[in-house]
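Handout, page 2. Input:
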Amino acid sequence: MKISLEWLRDYIDLNISPEEIGDILSDLGFPLEEMISFGDDTVLDIEVTSNRGDCLSYIGVARELSVATGSPLKLPEVSLKELDSEVGRHLAVNINETDLCKRYTASYIEGIEVGPSPEWMVRRLEASGLRSVNNVVDATNYAMLECGQPPHAFDYDKLSGDTINVRKAISGEKLTSIDHTVCELKPDMLVIADEENPVAIAGVMGGFETEVSQTTTKILLEEAFFDPVSVRTTARRLGLGSEASFRFERNIDIRSIEWASRRCAQLIIMAAGGAAAKGIADSCSELEEIPEITLRPERLTQILGFDVPEKKVFSILEDLGFNPQSDKKSGAVKCKSPTWRNDITREIDLIEEIARVYGYDKIPVEDKITIRAAKADPRQTCMQQVGAYLNGCGYYETLGITFTDPQTAKLFTGRSKKEYMAVKDVSRKNSNLLRQTLSGSLAEVMKNNKNFGNAGCKFYEIADTYELEGSRLNEKTKLAMTAEADIRELRGIVEGLVRRYSKTASVQVRPSSVCWADPAGEVLIDSESVGICGRLSKSVCDKIGLKDSRPAMLEIDFDKIYSLMGEQFKVARLQKFPSVERDISLIVSEELRWLDIERVVEANAPEQLEKFDYIDTYRGKPIPSGKKSLTMQFVFRDDDGTLTHEQVDKFEKPLIDALTNNFDAELRTS
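Output:
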């Protein structure tokens, strides 16, 4: 914000140089970006953070300097030339959307003469970065810069009827703004309307049809409080930005609106003549009571690292308008935020206020500092280990966007957007749903790489997902993988990952139904369901534009992997005697699952069976149609001696018999 020092001295006496003023403001948290000479005046361009909307005004900046220098703040005395009539004879206010407009005031002024502004007003506005328009518009801009409350002046004779309605736009309504932009209004946009049409976009910009012109003699003066989110959303959607919307977006002082309205009316009458009707049409929702904030002296010392004298604490808080009161019983300080400081709600906010006014330069500096090395976070360590393992398996990590669009959401979960948590940010009006699965993001990555001609792609992602359970948001970390490979490869990778952390945990996949996959399976670790896997169905591939490929995908709860991390491994002695391996091939029905074979082997396994693994599946001649050949490997070992082939035959025969009898299988010999 640009601050004219000539203008600033109307509100505070400062007998210090511009450089010193700039230094003070910088120390208070308003960095000086530039110092400019403007004729006989000096202009300071300072940065104002988004939480300090109160300092987007000369009075707000003067108030800060008053606290720092001790020089008293001087506020303008407001007195108006008034008509004999009451304001109610000329206008009325009706608020339909009290959630979006908590207060709206309107004043009536007549007898004005529109023309050039006084030289002093033009000079000060131009020094502050605003061009002169006419005396009425300039007076409203002057009032906005002075107190931070944006007013708007309507040509009263151009309004239809005498009632102002604060309502939402009706579908199909349009408004031409004062900068000649034709705005197509949406039903969720707040507008100011007369008895027929919208005449302004609330908090953003007025309408061209009712703007003040050379023929204007009567004015309806608006001062209001509009919801910051509503103003920001509407301004961005319409591509309209203004000094007014910039301030409304950062909150204004709702309790000082009446004073600001009277002050603006005074400036208009000073610049353009006329007189105001008695009183103000004021429609206001019930204002919430300002909550009390407790400051503990010991907490102040703990946070700052040094003691601030008690008298100084009270002096700073008093100067800032917090009206501090000592609680003799607890020793705490009770405060209430001033009406212009809506950003102060917690004890830590008060501590920050004391620190910046007392001076950050008073924080003691030690000759040595001690840095304590923190232990590595186990969860983060696990993520890094899992990532390194998957990299070793040839998989590349992707970093997906947390949001998804309704079409992808429906495709990969079968749920409508009503079953998702969504954000209202208009920049994400298409992809505004918090994703409940990582599969959609990985499918998009796979499609993009295929389109660029990258073959044999393998990707993974570890990220949070968000599921709605009633009104509660359940956040889960998931691990997802996709590859142009068989589902068994993904299962094998999960088995290897589980083996890194547990030698006893088992991984199983059983047939299931998944909306995006065909075939599909449910992934279990130690008989607990932890996720799903499958091959993208042709219909899903067609809908997302993935051509000539049906990649396999798997998604499991990362927390299950993490829970295995702390398992203690038992160290066994090296085996003295060699193992014996036997590979067999069985011709079985195409529908037979590997899980069923595992169960039969486990039920009939002798104690000498050390290991049992899947090797391969074969289809084709001479295997009959509807059949497949499964090759598996048995590994036998005896702790008491070397096994002979005759002994192994005895161990193997019951297993083969059990498999052939249970599944009507045939032992393949060639």
